[in-house]
Each structure stands twice: as structure tokens, then as C-alpha cells.
Specification:
alpha+beta; Surface presentation of antigens (SPOA); 4-stranded antiparallel beta sheet; 6-stranded antiparallel beta sheet; about 375 residues; about 35% helix; single chain
């Protein structure tokens, strides 16, 4: 066993140990260089161009989404696609980053993540929370995850429209603030998309999107007309039940905030026939709904509502009584994503409030409420 003469590890060796790189063979980093040489061997120039063109086509909408989320004008430009191994990619990153993993679980399954520089992540979290000198705590990580959730949701909708693959879905984003040396990057050569991010504060930031080798290759092939995406695109058009059951699965996986979007690319326009609403779905609907069973949705219980003038709100203080629009003893409303789905009565369980469901709103009533 070889030991250093002063008994200490160099910074490069510490980084290698943290990142799981075996530096025992042929010098530090040589194992990585041998296993994952940098370069574009895993994607052809046409495939890289297809990825660049697709992701560039989404930047305007992504800029608008981020602008609405932060309340300020944000511009996202690019990207430039490179295919590198771990060492070459890490060379582009600052020492500390925020990594938000949002792996694709179906459609193009595999590794997928966004990487923000730490100062850029803080700037975005500050804009969303309307708070200066923000720290990257649990709340900040949560809002950054929500921002990426919206970005991935738009990508899924755009990919479904472009490739005809209606089964694309992603896991809920998970954010971590780590030194770049411990970022869990895909093995081998993977695709990295580098965006230019302008938050309107006079500073230039970069944002990186990482696609695992299989994800990048599958998406590129589908964008170029390869794979089975063409066959999948014809599925919903064959019958109305298939359209209602699966056309919006891409957006729904990200929390219900994204619609299926208008489908482009088909020159034939056909009238759409919707199935009759029924209390229980058939086997096809049951199979499709299984794709989103693990998606979190916000459930709230509403005691009542009222409207007040601004001057009345400003005059409120301790002891102020606010009269609501419901009578005492009247059932409370149970809402999912702010849509009424049921009514119930308030109960107390071990000193905690709860709601016992007394009535389920019918599907027809829910649909009329959506209108």
C-alpha cells in the first residue's frame, strides 16, 4: 500500500473519494478518463442538433413560466449541447451548486437533472419568496423544486407533442445543495445542456441540464423520427376513449399544473368524440390513472368565504370576528387543487382537527365547476 509522505490527502484526492472515483489505478482521475472519455461518441452530430433545436424551442415558454413564478422578467437562452464524461463536465461548474433531480420514470426513462450555481439558486429563491439575503434552507429548496417541476412539466408536454409519445412522466424533483465534487452524475458519456440565465439583476448565470446516455439517445432518436414514437402517436386518434384516458399523462405527472397542450404535426383535422361521464372508469381509464397514483396533490378544507374592503382588513385586530358565508353546522367544502370534490363535517381526533366525508360531488358537478 502506498502512502503519502506527509500523511495528508490532497484536495484532488478528497474530491475523488467524495465523488466515488477510484484513484488507486494509474494516478488520480485516470480511471474516470478511461471509463468515460469526453467527446461526442454516444450521440451523432445530427442527434445533438436535434436535442439543441428541441430544447431551444422551449426556452421562450420556460422564460415566461419563470417570470410568472418570480414576478420579474427572466430570460433563458440556449442551450449548447455537449457530450462529456464526469471530469470534463465538472470543470464547467462552480465549487458549490444546487442539484435538482427530476428523473424520467417512463416514456424516456433514465437520469435527468438541473444544476444551478449556488448564487443563481439563491437569487431565484429570493425572487420567488420576495426575501433578500435568503439562505438555501428547506423552504428555499422546496420553491426551487417547484420551479423545476414547472420546467419539466412544459418539457414533457412539448416532447409528447413533438414525438407522439404520450407515456412520458417524471418523478417529483428533489433539490440538494452540495459541493460539485459529490454531484451524482450519470456514468459514462452523458449529454449536458448549458443555458444562459438572465434574472434581471445585471449578473450572468449559467444553468445546466443533464440527460443520462439512454435518455439523451432515446429522445434524440424520437425527435429524428426513430423508435416507436410514431406508432404511439397514432394511438389516441384511433378512438375517443384512448384520447380521454392518456393524452394528458405527461403534464399530470408533475402535479396537475400542466395540460396536455395542443398537438401539432398532424395535417388532418378530425372531430373529437368524448366518452360519457360515469362514476367509475373502465379498465382503460384504471390502467392509465395508475401512472399518476404517486403524485402529491394539495387538499384543503374550506370553512367559508367572505369579501372585505381593504380598509376593513387593515382595521382587523385581535378579537375581530369575521362573518363567513356559511351557516353554523353546514358541511365544509373539501377541495383538491382548489377544486371542490366533496363535503364533510369537522371532527376532533386526539386533539387534532379532521373532516369526515359526508358527500362526494358527482363527476358532472365537478365538470361544470371546471367550466
Amino acid at each position: 500500500m502506498m502512502m503519502m509522505s506527509d500523511g495528508a490527502l490532497s484536495k484532488a484526492e478528497i474530491d475523488a473519494l467524495l465523488s466515488g472515483v477510484d484513484s488507486s489505478l494509474g494516478g488520480l482521475g485516470s480511471a474516470t478518463a478511461t471509463a468515460a472519455p469526453s467527446g461526442g461518441g454516444s450521440l451523432s452530430s445530427e442527434q445533438k442538433k436535434a436535442l439543441e433545436t428541441f430544447f431551444a424551442s422551449t426556452t421562450d415558454a420556460q422564460s415566461s413560466n419563470l417570470s410568472m413564478l418570480t414576478g420579474t422578467q427572466i430570460s433563458l437562452k440556449g442551450p449548447q449541447i455537449t457530450v462529456n464524461g464526469r471530469d470534463a463536465f465538472l470543470g464547467q461548474l462552480p465549487e458549490s451548486v444546487v442539484v435538482i433531480k427530476a428523473d424520467f420514470s417512463s416514456g424516456f426513462p433514465g437520469e435527468h437533472m438541473f444544476i444551478f450555481p449556488e448564487d443563481g439558486a439563491k437569487a431565484i429563491a429570493s425572487l420567488i419568496n420576495k426575501e433578500d439575503n435568503i439562505q438555501l434552507d428547506e423552504m428555499s429548496m422546496s420553491v426551487l423544486g417547484e420551479a423545476v417541476s414547472q420546467m419539466v412539466g412544459h418539457q414533457i408536454t412539448a416532447l409528447a407533442s413533438k414525438t407522439g409519445n404520450k407515456s412520458i412522466a417524471a418523478v417529483p424533483p428533489e433539490a440538494t445543495n452540495v459541493p460539485k465534487a459529490v454531484v451524482a452524475l450519470p456514468s459514462g458519456d452523458f449529454a449536458g445542456a448549458t443555458y444562459q440565465l438572465d434574472l434581471g439583476d445585471g449578473k450572468a448565470y449559467q444553468l445546466w441540464e443533464v440527460l443520462g446516455p439512454s435518455v439523451a439517445g432515446d429522445i434524440a432518436k424520437s425527435l429524428n423520427g426513430g423508435g416507436s414514437a410514431a406508432g404511439q402517436a397514432k394511438g389516441p386518434a384511433a378512438g375517443a376513449p384512448g384520447l380521454s384516458g392518456g393524452s394528458n399523462m405527461g403534464g399530470s405527472q408533475m402535479g396537475g399544473n400542466y395540460g396536455g397542450g395542443t398537438q401539432f404535426g398532424s395535417p388532418n383535422v378530425q372531430s373529437v368524440q368524448f366518452p360519457h361521464l360515469a362514476p367509475h372508469g373502465g379498465p382503460q381509464e384504471a390502467g392509465n390513472i395508475g401512472l399518476i397514483m404517486d403524485v402529491y396533490m394539495e387538499m384543503t378544507v374550506e370553512l367559508g368565504r367572505t369579501k372585505k374592503l381593504i380598509k376593513e382588513i387593515l382595521n382587523m385586530g385581535e378579537g375581530t370576528i369575521i362573518e363567513l358565508d356559511k351557516l353554523a353546522g353546514e358541511p365544509v367544502d373539501i377541495l383538491v387543487n382548489h377544486k371542490l370534490i366533496a363535503k364533510g363535517e369537522v371532527v376532533v381526533i386526539d386533539e387534532n382537527f379532521g373532516v369526515r366525508v359526508t358527500e362526494i360531488v358527482s363527476p358532472s358537478e365537478r365538470m361544470s365547476d371546471l367550466g
